[in-house]
Amino acid sequence: xxxxxxxxxxxxxxxxxxxxxxxxxxxxxxxxxxxxxxxxxxxxxxxxxxxxxxxxxxxxxxxxxxxxxxxxxxxxxxxxxxxxxxxxxxxxxxxxxxxxxxxxxxxxxxxxxxxxxxxxxxxxxxxxxxxxxxxxxxxxxxxxxxxxxxxxxxxxxxxxxxxxxxxxxxxxxxxxxxxxxxxxxxxxxxxxxxxxxxxxxxxxxxxxxxxxxxxxxxxxxxxxxxxxxxxxxxxxxxxxxxxxxxxxxxxxxx
Length: 254
Hints:
By secondary structure, the chain is α/β, with parallel strands linked by helices. The chain has 2 domains: 1-101, Alpha-Beta Complex (Spore Coat Polysaccharide Biosynthesis Protein SpsA, Chain A); 104-235, Alpha-Beta Complex (Spore Coat Polysaccharide Biosynthesis Protein SpsA, Chain A), CATH 3.90.550.10. It has helices at 29-37, 53-61, 76-84, 105-117, 133-137, 175-178, 195-201, 208-213, 217-222, 242-253, and strands spanning 3-9, 46-50, 66-68, 92-95, 121-129, 143-146, 152-156, 185-194, 226-231.
């Protein structure tokens, strides 16, 4: 099956203005993401879908493939769908977030392979074990539970599964974070879509759970579609805040 990577790149960012263009290391953040995406072996191409000429020019400057998209697109999903609409010969479209400069090529390949191996699924995504209480209880950390075949059951900002302890004051004991297989999983926001489903996704009505959790993938589950979840050992590190970027710069210098 023919697959491509499309990186939605939005110019505005509330917590870290112009973050995709930050270049304390000598090259912009979007270039790191682009180069990481190129390490995947299954996709035939990588394209940045941007909303601003500064990002367009930056990608052109380092020799990347880039397309301008509607600056008023409501989401990154709509942005990649705009590019994918013209790719008639493509089967699978992978959405790699522009602020994921350290995404592993093997993780991208895994998401693609899951759709190849599971023809009944319209989407795939990734998860990684949660090994500490602070991360588990952080509402910014999206959790996922899935069945024995790897199909997503639910995504939530709350702690799932909920532990019904006979001694509630004990809370979540450390042993739960050490068990194998893991009990808790963090969702990693990389998605692979069947192209035809991606083009229909924005037309599906939002579900109440999507509105409540502010998680677009819940719309897919609500309408009865299957999402495959692949497990990787390490989470990717997205860049959302100045502190995130500072740590990224430090990692590049070591």
